[in-house]
Write a structure and sequence with these properties.
With 212 residues, the protein is mainly α. The protein has eleven helices and no strands.
């Protein structure tokens, strides 16, 4: 079985395991998803979901955040970690969206990555989930780990991993690939413990990096 064949089998099996996958972040519109995704960097989705209700109560839309006091934003998101940088980027992103994109979150990769604090991973998550557009594959820590273990890439660089995966999976499934790998990485093939005895991919997994 070559790499592309293995990739398709992996997707087929994980699709059966997760028939209706979606992001664990709570959001109601593209702006809320962008904020939640930025806050989720180096933080759990559970923690972000505890913070965002108060965040959106205080600043219900892009315009409100663009006028926010930085110290107030820092105080609300403090528990998500790296709060000073996240607050600075979110307020600056809101200001740019208001001045350059008429208050609307842009719908292209080229425009999204011009926003402060938004790189390809965040842009891919927003595009796929909020707009139904697949311009790439979001590579977070779970996707990075599983892609290597499953022999789908030899790189540790997220941008190279994304390119490797885009060649292996159909474009229509790029958003799905992120969802199922994240869920599987949280439940079965975690960083600290690999439940190979419960894994439906065990027979085709090269288990790279696990030793023994």
């Amino acid at each position: 079985m070559n790499k592309k064949e293995r990739a398709i089998v992996i997707l087929q099996r994980l699709r059966k395991r997760y028939p209706a996958p979606k992001t664990a972040l709570n959001w109601a519109n593209p702006w809320q998803l962008l904020v939640a995704t930025v806050l989720a960097a180096q933080c759990t989705d559970q923690r972000v979901n505890q913070v965002t209700p108060e965040f959106f109560r205080k600043w219900p839309d892009v315009k409100a955040l663009a006028q926010a006091d930085l110290a107030d934003v820092e105080a609300v998101i403090r528990s998500t970690g790296f709060y000073r940088n996240k607050a600075k980027n979110l307020v600056a992103a809101a200001q740019k969206i208001c001045t350059e994109f008429n208050g609307q979150v842009p719908e292209t990769m080229e425009e999204l990555v011009t926003l402060p604090g938004v790189a390809r991973k965040t842009a891919n998550i927003v595009l796929s989930n909020a707009f139904g557009k697949n311009e790439g594959i979001a590579v977070d820590t779970h996707v990075k780990r599983l892609s290597f273990r499953l022999g789908l890439t030899t790189s540790k660089n997220p941008n190279i991993i994304e390119k490797d995966l885009m060649v292996l999976f159909p474009k229509k499934d790029w958003g799905l690939v992120n969802h199922v790998l994240v869920l599987f990485g949280r439940e079965i093939c975690t960083a600290r413990q690999q439940k190979c005895g419960e894994c439906e991919l065990s027979d085709i997994c090269p288990k790279l990096g696990l030793g023994g």
